[in-house]
Amino acid sequence: MKFLLLGAAASALVVAASVAQADQAPAAKPTYGSYGFDTKGMDLAVAPGDDFYLHANGGWAGATAIPADKSNYGAFNVLDDLSRERTKGILEAAKSDPASMIGIAYASYLDAAPVEAKGLTPIQPWLAKIQSIKDKRSYARLAAEAARAGIPGPFAFYVGQDDKDPDHYILNLRQGGLGLPDRDFYLQPDEKMAAIRTAYVAHLEQILTLAGQSDAKRRAAALTAFETEVAKLHWTQVDSRDADKTYNRMTLADLQKAAPSFPFTDYFAANQLQPAALIVAQPSAITGEAALIARTPLELLKDALLLRSLHAYATYLPDRIADADFAFYGTTLSGTPQREERWKRAVDFVKESMGEEVGKIYVAKYFPPETKAAMDQLVKNVIAAMGRRIDGLSWMSDAAKARAHKKLAAFTPKIGYPEKWRDYSGLIVKPADLFGNALRSKQYEFDYQVGKLGKPIYRWEWQMTPMEINAYADFSMVEIVFPAAILQPPFFDPHADPAVNYGGIGAVIGHELSHHFDDQGAKYDETGKLNQWWSDADVVAFKGLTDKLVKQYDAYEPFPGAHVKGAFTLGENIGDLAGVAVALDAYHASLGGKPAPVIDGTTGDQRFFLGWAQVWRRNYREPNLHQRLVTDPHSPSQYRADTVRNFDQWYAAFKPAQGGKLYLAPQERVKIW
Question: Where is the Peptidase M13 N-terminal domain (predicted)?
């Protein structure tokens, strides 16, 4: 049966090779190079063993400027630009239909004149509500109302599956209350963070002034000082991604008893929520912030809510607000020189508010059924390869292997688009009412999400639109999901050599599959339940291997003194390591025992590893990369490509010298799955 599955999966690439993009004539050659890899983008002066990323991509990196409206640029952005151009075409056509919801929404963003003419008038009723807050109880209720409008407040809450009872939805409560991306931006003492904090105070002062507020300088400094105290209470990124530490189920009465100084009952009641139970992710942060709010002047809390409101809706307000907001969050934090053109922002607005309404048209036009069928088979091939690798593990017990196979058998791969589309018929969209359309769409989405409570799990649901250039794994759903738009070159090219496709989309499939077996995903069993299904000895053996990977990534230093955080990025690093391993096995199996052809002097394994490196080509602006080191659980692209240093097959393919910067002795190479 395994052989038949492998044969069918191997033919997936052949089937896909006959499928052209729906809006293009069949190409005689791959999009990149002669076999699917951009050889002109290499830098052959860099030895593979010194820096495989630059060896594969250095020419491209040196010749490619980051567009002025982007903080970084690479393979993902190339496809995102294409996806947005296609979506623009759909929306431009819809704009001429007076009955089209997506057309009306798109036009309302495109037309800047009404937005500028109205000024802050659309948001003034909300700002007046904030100013009318009389006590901490009414503050709590309005903070909850703000959450329904998509405005961040002192806490964040959402509806999701109960990790230990995945057949039921439950309310989740998490730490919040910061205007900067993470606690470290307030607490790290280095000069770069200090400069950001200084710029942040100036930004808050500017926004308060633009909103017609007095005494802006003092109020901005006071709010930053308050947020610094909140940051001291926040859990770290590492602790906040720990599924065990963040699973704290309690009743609302328990929460209110633990944090008596904040009226949580009123907070939830403001949105007609009376949860019998909820999951509190970071209890000490929640209770600590509740106490901090109790002793904080009401006027300061009102300022925080006012500023969060203007930030959340800046893009729907006049340019004097939107430009000031971008100057800090876009330029200071990420280094992006200028805002995107208005049509791009309009496309994003519609995608965020009614994504699946656009998605239905997108997949009909750009994602033929044959491609979906081919990808279904390829996913099965990679899953089969994972099964073989599990069988070969020396560190895992037989009992755990049996459970791992049960988990593999339970997987639901989702390819391209949902089988059931969202219904937006209850959403009200009005011409020339951008602010109102944004507000109503956020409220509509909030109501949709909290409306899940007490209902069966929406197993058809997707967390991304078909237009996304991304993929994801959902532990509780036991699923891996690949939107239509990522299934294009360089990730997947129907005209490329199979080795490149396996190194690209094959490794991406393996990456998402492997997330279910990473340091957190492995805690969930075949039903999606947070439940240790390994023996204690298995856990110890697994941690011994993952600790080696943490140490390996801790050593990477993109800037002097600024290291990758191996513990924070561990899940993604395991995904990359295992994804490449599984995809490489799947590629070898697809050859059916025959040697891979030599193409332009390259072997099959060389093309596989080059295909992997190609999808991670990316140039960063320095501020963006600094921010990612603090907030992004993914390692910088260079180090993702360089995970090949752990593979014996890479050493055999490229013959790196023992003194090379990437060279690892055989016993130092990390092998987990």
Answer: 48-418
Measured CA to CA, the distance from residue 274 to residue 322 in angstroms comes to 36
Tell me if 605 sits within 8 A of 541, measured CB to CB.
Answer: no
Cα distance between residue 302 and residue 321, in whole Å: 19
For residues 243 and 549, give the distance between their C-alpha atoms in angstroms, rounded to a whole number.
Answer: 19
| Strand arrangement, sheet containing 412-416 | 412-416, 479-483, 472-474
Round to whole Å and give the CA distance between 477 and 159: 14
DSSP string, 361-388: HHHHHH--HHHHHHHHHHHHHHHHHHHH
CATH 1.10.1380.10 residue spans of the chain: 136-298
- Every domain range in the chain assigned CATH 3.40.390.10: 2-21+35-84+368-420+458-668
- The pLDDT tens digits for 367-413 are 988 778 878 888 999 999 999 999 999 999 999 999 999 999 999 99
Query: In 10 A of CB 480, how many CB atoms?
Result: 26
Q: How far is CA 46 from CA 127, 469, 505, 620, 638, in A?
A: 57, 30, 26, 20, 14
- CA–CA distance from 11 to each of 75, 580, 590 (Å)? 26, 20, 8
Query: What's the rounded Cα separation, in Å, for the pair 607 and 164?
Result: 43
Q: Mind listing the pLDDT tens digit for each residue in 125-176?
A: 999 999 999 999 999 999 999 999 999 999 999 999 999 999 999 999 999 9
Closest CA to 641 of 485, 513, 507: 507
Q: Which position has the token pair 């890479």?
A: 650
How confident is the model at residue 244, as a pLDDT? 98
562: phi then psi, degrees, rounded to nearest 5: -110, 105
β-strands 165-175, 155-162 pairing: antiparallel
Which residue, 83, 22, 72, 71, is CA-closest to 355?
83
Q: How far is CA 36 from CA 155, 295, 446, 618, in A?
A: 47, 62, 43, 18
Q: What is the largest CA-CA distance in the chain?
A: 77
What's the one-letter identity of residue 296?
Answer: T
- Per-residue burial over 379-410, b if 16 or more Cβ lie within 10 Å, else e, is bbbbbbbbbebbeebeebeeebbebbeebbee
- In angstroms, the CA 476 to CA 75 distance is 30
Beta pairing class for 618-620 and 72-74:
antiparallel
CA atoms lying within 13 Å on the CB side of residue 656: 27
Q: What is the DSSP annotation of 96-162?
A: T-TT-HHHHHHHHHH-HHHHHHHTTGGGHHHHHHHHT--SHHHHHHHHHHHHHTT---SEEEEEEEE
The answer to whether the pTM exceeds 0.70 is: yes
- What is the rounded distance in angstroms from the CA atom of residue 202 to the CA atom of residue 218? 11
Whether the per-residue pLDDT at 14 is higher than 70: the answer is: no
Q: How high is the mean pLDDT of the chain? A: 94
Average pLDDT of span 281-295: 98
Q: Which residues are within 8 A (CB) of 490 and not within 5 positions of it... i.e. 6 or more apart?
A: 31, 32, 36, 37, 38, 75, 500, 504, 611, 614, 615
> What is the predicted pLDDT for the residue at 617?
98
CATH hierarchy code of domain 2-21+35-84+368-420+458-668: 3.40.390.10
Residue 363 structure tokens: 């997949």
